[in-house]
Amino acid sequence: MDVFISWSGTRSFAMAEFLRSWIQVVLQATKPWFSDEIQRGATWGTEISKSLERSPVGILCITPENKEQPWLLYEAGALAKGSDKNRVIPLLLDMDKADLAPPLGHFNAALCNDVGIKEVITTLNACLVEPLPLSVVEASLAAHMPTFRHEMDKIKEMAKPARTTKVRPDSDKIDQLLAMMQSIMGRVDSIEKSQIVAASDFMKRLEKESMRNRLIGLTKTNRSDHGIAGMTSEEYIFQMQNFLKDKKESDSKG
User: Fold this and answer.
1) CA 14, 16, 22: angle at the middle one, nearest 5?
2) Each residue of 56-69: pLDDT tens digit?
């Protein structure tokens, strides 16, 4: 049975390289494969596609530094969509299952320890056309587990690639700063305009109030002189406004 092993990155590659030979020793009916086996001159993408198509089981060698790599996602998807019986097993090194986000987190992952690798081997055995008795599988695991522990410890101690932070170009920072300044200036201009309009309205109200007060003052002293002593102040103002309006229209016609 073909077993596709997916990898990405230095430590993931070391995992895949070790598991290729170790799994076949533990379960001799399996044929693990990973991309290092592609012959020189062969079409890389074609060979991987062929292996994905013929493999009912895939193991993803996942580490903290590659858990979001697009290539792993692609190979996982290609393995999963082949058949409902296909199995995709993320094998996690230096990670907990909770650290694996979807879509890979939707698969039933295994930790890279004694319990996890036993689950992987048991799953592989169940997928064989003629599965071995569980006692035989456990005996084989017990015999080869020390090698697995030793190699995984070595891989864990390998230099972990530093996580690089993408540095934004200065041009992007300048563009953002200019946009912020334009936004601030626009707000200042809007505030200034609103303040000018408010001040203008306030002055107009003051002028009207002042004129009203002057007219009221006139009414108190002069209403008897104009024969309108019985009018209230508001009635007198109304009459004065009409008089001024008529006079303005008469002057414009003349």
Assistant:
1) 100
2) 899 999 999 999 88
